[in-house]
Design a protein that fits this description.
There is one protein chain. The chain has 527 residues and is of the alpha+beta class. It has 20 helices and 7 strands. The protein has 3 domains: 202 residues, Growth Hormone, Chain: A, CATH 1.20.1250; 197 residues, Up-down Bundle (Growth Hormone, Chain: A), CATH 1.20.1250; 84 residues, OB fold (Dihydrolipoamide Acetyltransferase, E2P) (Beta Barrel). The chain has a 4-stranded antiparallel beta sheet, with no helix packed on it. β2 and β3 form a beta hairpin. The C terminus is likely disordered.
Length: 527
């Protein structure tokens, strides 16, 4: 088998395995909801939240050691091991009857989430720098496994339970997932061969962890907290958002949420290609900039506000002689009154993009009343209405999802650029931070909603997070420009290719995360 065919085979198997793992990783979101809604098992709201979050949490925390193991022993060894352990845990979950047993099973199959760290490291060693962004983007398409579970698992559960006539049939769903993992383990082992980074086996654990002292790694982690953690959080949060804020059915909310999650997973391949062609830095500028704009637009909540405003005050004393919707007379003095036109919140179903307002005045006196100077004759009212049209909202959320999908690939384009011999450990840590975002953000959303009563507070959080990432990246880029020669600053956006050694392998990057002098031009482009 040629080197190219081996690389393509590894990429194909990695992507398929990651898709299966991601589908398993998201299983509890559907399974637990199904069991509780149909009163097959009784869990309270806090227990439901923990059961949905535990696989995300454990799958994220274990990414770092699993990534380091991949650097040391290779993906062909580690990936099957991860899938096999997750399969055993799925089988164990199928026998669970209590909350504690569900927790143990969820802790086990949550390891499927570590497949991302394995796949990133194992994919990187098969492709040269100029093609790594595209390859990692294709691998990232496996995120679509989440959509496969959210769209397919409910139908499978209904079939397994014979439309709830046999409630215990749900236990076959984890077994089906376990069988899929076992089949994928066998196919993966047969279709791939092992490869580790240069000197991967000879280095100590301390050397594997050395890059984690570099601030750049944590900056990449913050980017990934937003683009991946935000993706995982919103994939779960949007369903109750639509139901509560727009009063949709759960089924419609699921479809609208899929408009966000499915394209975001699939488009990751495009993000990898764009990162190869234009540079990760350029792509991240667009991703973060567009996210800031869209989140700012989404911050404004759906609202229907009526507030007191300017009224009509008499400038003379006397007796009211006439009152109409447009005028009040006191003696022979006329005072204009602004009537209500009812245009702030039209009832004809028109789509309103921007907030609208209406101001009117209502007489509070009647003919024959005696009034004094400076007495209020008509009360003023302002009505502010913002439709926050569901389709415009969904379009903006769709754009945010696309940006997150592209950004996920761009972030992982950075890692082999700066840390080619530590992709597993660095990629693992970045993945941990991103995964923790998926676990932590819904909790923060819940508290913000509780404190303010506004569903749009989640967009306030993401606006602030994207803005911080954008400013931090820009400051770093400017500092790098100033440290380099003037001609380098002028050529920062020019495409460069990492020089190769005589044996055809790429020149490595120092353990500190700073590219050697001969490759700084390429790294500056992707800073």
């Amino acid at each position: 088998m040629t080197e190219r065919r081996k690389a393509l085979s590894a990429l194909t198997m990695n992507t398929l395995a990651f898709t299966v793992c991601f589908a398993v990783w998201m299983m509890n979101g559907v399974l637990v909801t199904f069991l509780v809604e149909n009163r097959i098992l009784a869990f309270d709201k806090s227990q439901i939240g923990w059961l949905m979050g535990i696989p995300v949490l454990t799958g994220s925390l274990v990414r770092l050691p699993v990534g380091m193991l991949t650097d040391k022993y290779g993906g062909r060894v580690v990936f099957p091991a991860v899938m096999f352990v997750a399969a055993l845990s799925c089988v164990g979950l199928s026998f669970a009857t209590t909350f504690g047993e569900f927790v143990v099973g969820s802790l086990g199959f949550g390891l499927a989430g570590t497949g991302f760290a394995v796949g990133i490291a194992y994919t990187s060693v098969w492709f040269k720098r100029e093609h790594q962004g595209t390859a990692l983007g294709v691998f990232g398409v496996g995120n679509a496994g989440a959509a496969l579970t959210s769209l397919g698992a409910p139908t499978i559960l209904m079939a397994l339970t014979d439309n709830l006539a046999n409630p215990e049939g749900w236990r076959n769903l984890p077994r089906i997932y376990a069988a899929a993992l076992v089949v994928m383990t066998i196919v993966f082992s047969l279709a791939t061969e092992n490869r580790t980074p240069a000197h991967g086996r000879d280095r100590t654990w301390r050397e594997h962890l050395a890059p984690l002292k570099v601030m750049r790694v944590w900056r990449f982690g913050l980017y990934y907290f937003f683009v991946f953690g935000g993706f995982v959080a919103l994939a779960q949060w949007l369903i109750p958002y639509y139901v509560a804020a727009y009063e949709t059915s759960v089924a419609l909310a699921g479809v609208l949420a899929a408009i966000f999650s499915l394209p975001s997973g699939v488009i990751r391949a495009l993000g990898g290609w764009m990162s190869d062609k234009f540079g990760a830095r350029t792509v991240m500028y667009w991703v973060l900039g567009a996210s800031v704009v869209c989140c700012a637009l989404l911050v404004v909540p759906r609202m229907d506000i009526t507030s007191p405003s300017e009224g009509v005050i008499s400038t003379v004393g006397g007796t009211v002689t006439a009152v109409s919707a447009k005028e009040i007379r006191v003696g022979d003095r006329a005072f204009a009154v602004r009537p209500k036109d009812g245009n702030a919140a039209p009832a004809d179903g028109r789509v309103l993009v921007w907030p609208t307002s209406e101001f009117w005045q209502e007489p509070i006196v009647k003919v024959g009343d005696a009034v004094s100077k400076r007495q209020l004759l008509a009360r003023g009212t302002t009505h502010i209405f913002f439709q926050a049209n569901i389709w415009i909202f969904t379009f903006l959320v769709f754009v945010v999802g696309i940006m997150m999908g592209i950004g996920k690939a761009a972030v992982y384009k950075y890692i082999p650029e700066y840390f080619p011999d530590n992709v597993g450990s660095v990629g693992g840590l970045v993945g941990v931070i991103g995964g923790l975002g998926g676990f932590v953000c819904p909790i923060i959303f819940g508290y913000l909603l509780k404190w303010t009563g506004l569903w749009t507070t989640c967009w306030m959080l993401f606006f602030a997070l994207a803005f911080v990432c954008l400013i931090w990246m820009h400051i770093v880029v400017r500092r790098m420009e100033k440290r380099q020669a003037p001609e380098m600053s002028q050529q920062i956006d020019e495409k460069s290719v990492r020089p190769s050694r005589a044996d055809g392998t790429e020149a490595s990057v120092s353990i500190s995360g700073t590219p050697p002098t001969s490759t700084r031009m390429a790294a500056m482009r992707n800073s």
